[in-house]
Amino acid sequence: MLDALSGGGGELRGIAECDDTAAMRSALDSCSGNVDVGAAGTAMRFLTAYFASCPGREVVIDGTERMRRRPIGVLVDALRKCGADIEYVADQGFPPLRIRGRRLSGGCLTLDASVSSQYVSALLMVAPVMDAGLTLTLEGDVVSWPYINMTIELMSKWGVTTEVERNVLKVPHGIYGKVDFAVEADWSAASYWFETEALSAGDISLKGLCPDSLQGDSRLMDLYRNFGVNAVWGDDGELVLEPTPDLTPRVNMDLSEQPDLAQTIVVTCCMLGLPFRISGLSTLRIKETDRLAALQCEMRKVSFDIDIVDDSVLEWDGRARWPIMDGQPVVIDTYADHRMAMAFAPVGLYIPGLVIRDAEVVTKSYPRFWHDMELLGYRLEEVDIDKLDWKR
């Protein structure tokens, strides 16, 4: 998006090959009036702001059925206050959207930042092309601040400096420069290998990550010390995961700044038998699926009954409620959510024959995931779910 706002032409190296990135690049390259981002929520939010700021460009932006139930009203209202011409094609507050691009006025804006950091990032990135720039005051409990900070830092690499004064962000009118940029590997994707290390005490090293990462999920290195994983930087720049005997007897974590790690950490805690209270999960209801409900449902299939508290906390008291039925295949539903598939995959270490339904959903962010599991020695087999022997 920053490269497009600069006029394009920068060399971007290390771009992820996945559905989300493909949706973003395809939309930016398209001359069509109809843009389909599929299940890419980040692309939907960012492109809404981008197209609104492109004078003369008219598009209808749409996505999957789930995308049509993911709210976008907070961002649309904010853009309209800056002069954007956006209308809802169907239900108010939700995609699809018809956008007629124009010069945006900018100015001063107050935004509820408790819903999604993507709204903030979308506004910040288009702020320099607004006539008056943008002074953005954030209200409420700001969620996923590391993502907002990452946006600000990357904007500075393209030549635009944001002034930050507590909850007020000031972006001047300006021009992005052309930049050649190497994209860091994804710490969110790395979380599944931290989980695997915690459950198997194997030998895993990860390439492409940076010690001074802007990604909030780089907190993995600290979080997984609770689960017997020590991560050290090798001489060749790889991150080496080593097992330790140290386990925290009870886990109490606030993941408000790393909500994408919730599924991975919940599964890790349960499989290691560690009671937990994980807070800061208010955004999980409006992700690719309702991740709180999905986690609760699927953990029951592997004998763990976790509680949802105040729509933002997951708790488990450390007791398994019922045994897994011997001889019955355990089938994990993924709810069209890539993180459900990847977070539950290492459970196969404990439950031989574990079935992950709709496993191809990982292409949203990590198409090589199953290939990489095989590299670690997992034996994978494609099965017809309707032909499983439920009594074997």
Q: Could you say how many structural domains there are in total?
A: 2
Radius of gyration: 22 Å
Strand order of the largest sheet: 2-3-5-4
Q: Enumerate how many helices there are, as a single number.
A: 12
Q: Residue ranges: pLDDT <50 for 5 or more in a row? A: none
Beta strands, count: 19
The averaged pLDDT comes out at 93
CATH class of the largest domain: Alpha Beta
Describe the protein in words.
- The chain is of the alpha/beta class.
- The chain has 2 domains: 2-172, Alpha-beta prism (UDP-n-acetylglucosamine1-carboxyvinyl-transferase, Chain); 187-387, Alpha-beta prism (UDP-n-acetylglucosamine1-carboxyvinyl-transferase, Chain).
- Helix content is 29%, strand content 20%.
- It has helices at residues 2-5, 19-29, 41-52, 73-81, 117-126, 145-157, 187-200, 220-223, 262-272, 291-301, 338-344, 369-375, and strands at residues 12-13, 34-36, 58-62, 85-88, 97-100, 107-112, 134-139, 163-165, 168-171, 181-182, 204-206, 227-233, 239-247, 251-254, 276-279, 307-309, 313-316, 331-332, 355-356.
- The strands form 6 sheets. A 4-stranded mixed β-sheet has the order 2-3-5-4, with helices on one face.
- α2 (19-29) runs parallel beside α3, α4 (73-81) packs parallel to α5 and α5 packs parallel to α6 (145-157).
- The longest helix is centred in the middle third of the chain and has 14 residues, at 187-200.
- The radius of gyration is 22 Å and the shape is globular.
- The mean pLDDT is 93.
